[in-house]
Each structure stands twice: as C-alpha cells, then as structure tokens.
Automatic annotation (TrEMBL):
Top-level lineage group: Bacteria
Gene encoding the protein: glgA
One Gene Ontology molecular-function label: alpha-1,4-glucan glucosyltransferase (ADP-glucose donor) activity
Protein name: Glycogen synthase
Catalytic reactions of this protein: [(1->4)-alpha-D-glucosyl](n) + ADP-alpha-D-glucose = [(1->4)-alpha-D-glucosyl](n+1) + ADP + H(+)
Keyword Glycosyltransferase carried by entry: yes
Listed CDD domains: GT5_Glycogen_synthase_DULL1-like
Domain (Glycosyl transferase family): residue spans on this chain: 290-451
NCBIfam families registered for this protein in UniProt: glgA, PRK00654.1-2
Species per Swiss-Prot/TrEMBL record: Jiella endophytica
Signal peptide positions on this chain: none
InterPro entries named among the record's database cross-references: Glyco_trans_1, GS/SS, Starch_synth_cat_dom
Keyword vocabulary terms for this entry: Glycogen biosynthesis, Glycosyltransferase, Transferase
Length: 481
C-alpha cells in the first residue's frame, strides 16, 4: 500500500513534541506490513539544512502555486524517511520554531502556512507528483486536517483519508475572514464543513470530512466523546461512531534502547540492571545533586497546566522533606518555570532544573532517574511514560488517557504477580500526587520489589509492532470499501 503521511513535524528532522516521534517512527513499523509511507513536511530551515548537510539526492517537482504562493516539492530520502518537502520560502523560511517566532509567539500567518500544507497534500494525493498516487492519506492534527476537506470538496477521484488526533486541545480555529483565501468551495462554509461557531475550524472540518478518525489511545478515544473532555467537539466525535478508533502509540525502540544508547554513561538491560547506577551517578553530577542512595524523581515535559506540572512545582518542598531529589527538564508556562527555579534556589543540591529541551539529555534522565512523574490532567497517549518503561524509570502517572492504557499499577495483586510496571493515581490533584509519591518511596525501599518492577517495565512491549499492525489493517479495510 502507498501511504501519504502529512505532518507538521517528524523526528529527527524537526520536533516540538510527541507528534514528531510518531510521524518519524510509524513509517518504519508500517514497512513490516507492506506499507510504503512517504511523509509530507513543510520546508522549515532546519529541514532544508538537513537536506543540504546530508548531501542527499533531491528530485525537484514543480507544483506551480499553492494558495497563490510559489511552491515546489522536494522528493528526498533522509534519516531513513521517504519525504516530500513543501518548499515555500515565503511561508516557512523564517527564524523560530515550526509554529512560533524566536520570542515564542505564534506566527500570525499560521492559518496560511498549514492551509498550504493541507492544500499541497491534497494536490499530491490526486496525482500532482508524477508516479505517485497514494492509496491512503494519513493526516496528523489540525495542521494537516484541511487535507480531507480539500479532497472531499473535489470532483475528482480521491484516496481514503485517516485523521489522527494527537491532542484535541489544539484545534486550529481562525477568524471567518480567512475563509475566502483558503480556495474552498462556498458550500464548505457550513456546519458540515469548516464553520465552527462563526470561525474556521481546521480540525473540526477534517473530523467531518475524513473517512476514519483515530486517536492515540483507546481510553482517550472514550474520553473525548464525553462533554467534559470533548473540548467542544464531543458531539461531532460521538457522531462518528465506529469511525473513531483508539490505537495506542508506540516508540522507536531502535532510538530508545538502553542496551545501545550512545547518550548514556553506561548501557544496561532488563537482564543486567547493575550498570544503571552509573547513569544515576552521572545524572547527580550533571545537575549538581547531592550524591546518595535515595531516589531521584524526574520530570521531562512541557511545563503546563495540562501536564499537571503546576502540582509538582507546588510540592517541591514536600518532596525534599521526604528525602526525594528532583530533576526537571522542560519549558512552558512562565509561572511553572519560575516555581521550579525558585525551588532550585532553595534546594540547590536536591532540585535540579534545566529550562528548555535537549533530546540527548532526556535519554540520560530516563536512564539515571528512578521514577518519572506524569500527573497529567488529560493525556491523549503520552510517550514519556513509554520511554520510562523502556529505561526502567518507573512511571508515576495520573489515571487518564494513554497513561492508564500503558502502565500497570503496583497494587497488591500486580506486585505479587511481578506484573506491576508503575504507580497510577487519581484524581490528578496535589493530595493524590503526594500519596502516589509516598507509595513509590515505599516500593523503592523494598529493593527486590523495585528491581522486579524495573524488569517488568523494561520487558513491556512499548514498540510500534502491534499498533502498526492495527493501522495496516485499518488502511486495508478502507481500501476494500
């Protein structure tokens, strides 16, 4: 099967979060199921530099204009991925990240930048690239969600479309004034199209137009059809019925492998855990923590309310009182960042903070910390807990979304059966978080129990193997319709 994947980011070329990891890893897993994936990415400066640095063979394919701006497609194999890169310097050649400028503010023309990505994807899906005609178009999040809308509005034959929601909180809603510039038929300005409370809803339009909606865990698929978690789209999602499917994310176990990870001070495995202590000692040194045998708890995350990191920031003093050392890596809301930095000032040898994101550092934290805190208020899937499982860094998670689907709580039965892989708590509030930390500390003090939990966690299947099979089956079923 020929699959066109459309995403706004893909690891290792451009990454701000879990979407990039999925877009970068899933094509490799799908190859085992006779799926050839080509990924369409915007031509950000980092992507263009990677092409130039690699000296890769590039085929330049004219696309004339997209939404009135000059455009071309670069076909290239890079980092093991087959790529179509949308080269539109007027939209993508600028300083900053994929979505924000150097000051962290959203680009004012994001509506145009990602409408162009969707439009280009629809053009490719209908034969704009000679010799390539996909069987399935798989689009990710609001940035690519207009692709099914463009295809559904066309009178030409079109492939089946799958839209994956990675986080329903991000929907791509813009003022109605932009609609005339999207080059969509007037009929799409309707409740069955892109109109959403008087605005243009990119994700909302895609959810109507696509053939199947998937999201990144079965529990999250159940949550988002409820009024409390549907972010205003629960009615639409309920209406999709069996066309809404939850498939849990996996991780790239080639990149995330403690037995061979070059970022680590020492490699180790579930069978040979002893070398892991060297990573703990290295982490203490890197963050200036007091060297001792007590536990290190870690946070590697966007520092936001959604992730529940305000709760962790508020209880730093209580954690220190319990003998915990804390490592925090991430960036996000200024108030949460400041609260963690203040805790570091009060406890410089017990609370280590690194504002920003560093991919290799996140590997070292997972290998050196004893447990990873993920108290999310909602979590579509989460990849951090999967990395934790893979590295024997015990996840301490809220019972929401994919966290509930991927971690086995250390209750009496699970511990007795040596099946426990983490600690689950609910609700995601301060009291429950501290209670979960106390449970974690109690388990840590029982060395044999803790080692068995680490071994069970590291043996858990966090790969894409099963989920890629489910996606391939979904594609196959759509082609039969």
């Amino acid at each position: 099967m020929q699959i066109l994947s459309i995403a706004s980011e893909a690891f290792p070329l451009i990454k701000t979060g879990g979407l990039a990891d999925v877009a970068g890893a899933l094509p490799f897993a799908l190859a085992e199921h006779a799926c050839r994936v080509v990924t369409l990415l915007p031509g950000y400066p980092t992507v263009m530099r990677a092409i130039e640095t690699a000296g890769a063979d590039v085929e330049v394919l004219p696309l004339d204009t997209v939404l009135g701006a000059p455009a071309r497609i670069l076909a290239v194999d890079l980092a093991g991925l087959k790529l179509f890169v949308l080269d539109m310097p007027t939209l993508y050649d600028r300083l900053g990240g994929p979505y924000t400028d150097a000051g962290g503010h959203d680009f004012g023309d994001n509506w145009m930048r990602f409408a162009a990505l969707s439009k280009a994807g629809a053009m490719i899906a209908q034969g704009a690239v000679p010799g390539f005609l996909p069987d399935i178009v798989h689009v990710h999040d609001w940035q690519a969600a207009l692709t099914p809308v463009y295809l559904a509005a066309s009178n030409r034959p079109r492939p089946k479309t799958v839209l994956t929601i990675h986080n329903l909180a991000f929907q791509g809603n813009y003022p109605s004034a932009i609609f005339p510039q999207l080059e969509l038929p007037a009929a799409t300005w309707s409740i069955e199209g892109v109109e959403y409370y008087g605005n243009v809803g990119y994700l909302k339009g895609g959810l109507h137009a696509c053939d199947v909606v998937t999201t990144v865990s079965p529990t999250y698929a159940k949550e988002i059809v409820t009024e409390g978690s549907g972010m205003g789209l629960d009615g639409l999602l309920r209406g999709r019925g069996s066309r809404l499917v939850g498939i849990v994310n996996g991780i790239d176990t080639r990149v995330w492998d403690p037995a061979s990870d070059p970022a680590l001070a020492a490699n180790y495995s579930a069978r040979e855990l002893k070398p892991r202590i060297h990573n703990k000692r290295a982490l203490e040194g890197e963050f200036g923590l007091r060297r001792e045998n007590g536990p290190i708890l870690a946070v590697v995350s966007r520092l936001t309310w959604q992730k529940g990191l305000d709760l962790v920031a508020e209880v730093c003093d209580e954690l220190v009182e319990r003998g915990v050392r804390l490592v925090v890596v991430g960036s996000g809301e200024a108030m949460i960042e400041g609260t963690f930095q203040a805790a570091h000032s009060r406890h410089p040898d017990r609370v280590g903070v690194r504002i920003g994101y560093d991919e290799e550092l996140s590997h070292r934290v997972q290998a050196g910390a004893d447990a990873i805190l993920i108290p999310s208020r909602f979590e579509p899937c989460g990849l951090t807990q999967l990395y934790g499982l893979r590295y024997g860094c015990i996840p301490v998670v809220a019972k929401v979304g994919g966290l509930a689907d991927t971690v086995v709580d250390a209750n009496y039965a699970a511990v007795s059966a040596e099946a426990a892989t983490g600690v689950i708590f609910t609700p995601p509030d301060r009291a429950s978080l501290l209670e979960a930390v106390d449970r974690t500390l109690g388990l840590y003090e029982e060395a044999r129990v803790w080692r068995r939990m680490q071994a069970a966690a590291m043996k858990a299947d966090v790969s894409w193997t099963k989920s890629a099979r489910l996606y391939a089956g979904l594609y196959s079923d759509l082609m039969k319709e």
